[in-house]
Amino acid sequence: MRAVALFSGGLDSALAIKVIQEQGVEVVGVYVDIGFESNPQKVNQLQKLAEELGIELEIVDGVEEYLESILFTPKYGYGKNMNPCIDCHSFMIRKGLEVMEKVGGKFVITGEVVGQRPMSQRLPALNSVGKLVGEGRELVVRPLSAKLLPPTLPEKEGWIERAKLLDIRGRERSRQLKLAKKYKLEGFESPAGGCLLTDISFSRRLKKLGRITPAEIPILRVGRHFEIDGCRFIISRKEEENRILKKYQGDRFIPLLPQFPGPVGLMEIKGKGELEQMGADLVTSYSRFPTGKVNIGGKIWEGTSHPKSHWQKFLI
């Protein structure tokens, strides 16, 4: 018997896997990448924990589909920021069901805990997730809170024993930590960090920019963002961000390349004339030079430094 587990690298998903493994079920872990993970070492951490758990790991690239069909048109809306948690959970479960079919699994498990998250893990929210999942909802088992929920098909059919599942609820994590000691789990990720869509600053930048492509996600994470006369500018803050902005391959922005040691920038391609001059001035203002030449789309502009206070009103 095989099952597929939605695998975040956190303690709850690891415990859900252990609980099901104890019933003799082989588990395949699935990480659905939607592009907004805040931990740059995520894949390495997942691989180490998968090895600790003794499971295969499948990584699904869901970025493009998520941007096209979920992020900007969620049926159940957003949380406090740009986080469409209910729609997002259902998307991940559907991806898990797809992998289940591919690897010959019988059901999907998740590490969700009833009442742990205010938007996506209340009972009504779990029901909403089920509606979006559709026909496969009966194949979704939440081992950590299963006894608080109606029996699923795997339980009804006797594939797994309901009596051996758990009844954890709420935000208190003492039971999970005790179980982590029991199973000697060490490589799980702490609850801090996680999804960038819950971050106020990142969400504000995303909302201002509107619909994006996968190429725009890395540049939303970095730099200082300005909006001047409806045109977006991004100016790097350090050498590492210079490298990220230089790697941009989309068609929405053009590079602002200083011909002196200084920050690299991007400017929306619709910016012309006076806005190009402002781009050159921005780059120069965040350098240590009073003036400097900046290459914008193959044309050299002479940038003039202004006090940083001059630009504060344009910051996003």
| Name of the CATH superfamily of the largest domain | HUPs
Shape: elongated
CATH overall fold name of the largest domain: Rossmann fold
Number of strands: 11
| Amino-to-carboxy terminus distance | 51 Å
Radius of gyration: 23 Å
Topology readout:
Elements: E1 2-6, H1 11-21, E2 26-33, H2 42-53, E3 56-61, H3 63-71, H4 85-103, E4 107-109, H5 123-133, E5 140-141, H6 153-156, H7 174-183, H8 200-209, H9 217-220, E6 224-228, E7 231-235, H10 239-246, E8 253-258, E9 265-268, H11 274-285, E10 291-296, E11 299-304, H12 308-311
Parallel strand pairs: 1-2, 1-4, 2-3, 4-5
Antiparallel strand pairs: 6-7, 7-9, 8-9, 8-10, 10-11
Helix pairs in contact: 1-7, 4-5
Characterization of this structure:
The structure is a single chain. The protein has 316 residues and is α/β, with parallel strands linked by helices. The chain folds into 2 domains: 182 residues, 3-Layer(aba) Sandwich (Rossmann fold), CATH 3.40.50; 93 residues, no CATH class. Helices cover 36% and strands 18% of the residues. The chain contains 12 helices and 11 strands. The protein has a 6-stranded antiparallel sheet with strand order 6-7-9-8-10-11, sandwiched between helices. Strands 3-2-1-4-5 form a 5-stranded parallel sheet, sandwiched between helices. A hairpin with a 2-residue loop joins β6 and β7. α1 packs across α7 and α4 crosses α5. The radius of gyration is 23 Å and the shape is elongated.
